[in-house]
């Protein structure tokens, strides 16, 4: 009687191992699929990151260019407030001359 029980218990243990093996295989396949999905996702994110880095570099160059332009405008703004600028505009646009300045006109 003990031999029959021992034989049946041993047989039951073998059957319970096989369903677990199938579960382990399913879990491994699921993990492989998840790994593949995350791998593809990370490649996509890496590509977007590279695009953003390039865009950032372009924007930083544009900012630097605009800062230089702003500096030039500020310098010109300061120059416009000087007497030299006023004199230059009066001579060029209005034809005005200093009292002790002599003008020579071309004749054709």
Features:
108 residues, 84% helix, rod-shaped, mainly alpha
Describe this structure in words.
The longest helix is centred in the middle third of the chain and has 79 residues, at 2-80. This protein has two helices and no strands. By secondary structure, the chain is an all-alpha fold. The protein has helices at 2-80, 83-94. The model has no long low-confidence stretch (mean pLDDT 84).
Brief summary of the model shown:
Helix content is 84%, strand content 0%. With 108 residues, the protein is mainly alpha-helical.
Helix- and strand-based class? mainly alpha
Helix proportion range: over 70%
Helix-strand topology string: HH
Number of helices: 2
Tell me what portion of residues adopts beta-strand conformation.
under 5%
Instruction: Find the count of extended strands (DSSP E, 2+ residues).
Output: 0
Uncertain regions spanning at least 5 consecutive residues: none
Mean pLDDT: 84
Give the end-to-end Cα distance, rounded to a whole number of Å: 139 Å
Shape, principal axes of CA atoms: rod-shaped
What is the CA-atom radius of gyration, in angstroms? 43 Å
Largest sheet: none
């Amino acid at each position: 009687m003990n031999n029959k029980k021992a034989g049946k218990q041993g047989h039951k243990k073998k059957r319970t191992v096989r369903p677990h093996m199938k579960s382990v295989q399913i879990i491994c396949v699921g993990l492989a699929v998840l790994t593949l999905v995350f791998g593809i996702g990370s490649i996509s994110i890496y590509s977007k990151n590279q695009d953003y880095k390039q865009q950032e570099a372009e924007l930083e160059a544009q900012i630097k260019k605009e800062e230089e332009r702003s500096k030039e405008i500020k310098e010109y703004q300061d120059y416009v407030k000087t007497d030299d600028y006023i004199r230059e505009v009066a001579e060029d646009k209005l034809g005005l001359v200093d009292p002790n300045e002599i003008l020579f006109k071309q004749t054709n």
